[in-house]
Amino acid sequence: MRVKVCGTTSVRDAVLSAEAGADALGFIFAPVSKRLVTPQVAREAGLSVGPVVARVGVFLGQGLDEVLRTADSARVSAVQLHGPLRGLYVRQVAAYYPVLRVVRPADLAAEADMWRDEPGVTLMLDAPEPGGGVPLDWAALRDVFPRGAWLAGGLGPANVAAAMQALNPAGVDAVSRLEASPGVKDAALVQAFVATARPGQTRVIHSETATCG
């Protein structure tokens, strides 16, 4: 089980998520997001936790050049793509970075067929309004949820165990239910989420050794 804490906006939140045992941090570059960060902030936050934690750039509707420039500047290790996108576009991004292709329940079957056995592209099922904190109907998705896909959409400490039991995802991703306010993580909620999703995975982060060179 992989655990991603998305909507990271500061070094402080990056470190607390990494110390809780998160495998990945999400940095949102979609202009419409309340959790928007600059590439510089994402780079500093990512470097503060070292290479053991994946750094995922989250995009919605940006052009290919902008995605690649931003990802390079922020030094992310993977890219998460939201919105209606052509297959060619996703493959072009995947030529440079591993891709989490985010889909809604209505598009799950078609996208699963498109990306089955595609190198470098992993599906993530999310709610129709990402970051809104509303869980999906996991029972209704049990028969169509692809093996190896990730799950997002309204997950938090109180419901992630039930979601995992229902769908057996390869990874889980959370944002709004781990916050004290939009863009500010609640340390206790982050710790509880990671501990529930994957017990015993805390780590020590020596952020003072990281550089931005």
Automatic annotation (TrEMBL):
Molecular-function annotations in GO: phosphoribosylanthranilate isomerase activity
EC number of the protein: 5.3.1.24
Catalytic activity: N-(5-phospho-beta-D-ribosyl)anthranilate = 1-(2-carboxyphenylamino)-1-deoxy-D-ribulose 5-phosphate
Phosphoprotein recorded as keyword: no
Pfam families the record matches: PRAI
GO terms (BP aspect): L-tryptophan biosynthetic process
Domain of life: Bacteria
Metabolic or biological pathway: Amino-acid biosynthesis; L-tryptophan biosynthesis; L-tryptophan from chorismate: step 3/5
Recorded family membership: Belongs to the TrpF family.
Protein name in UniProt: N-(5'-phosphoribosyl)anthranilate isomerase
Source organism per UniProt: Deinococcus indicus
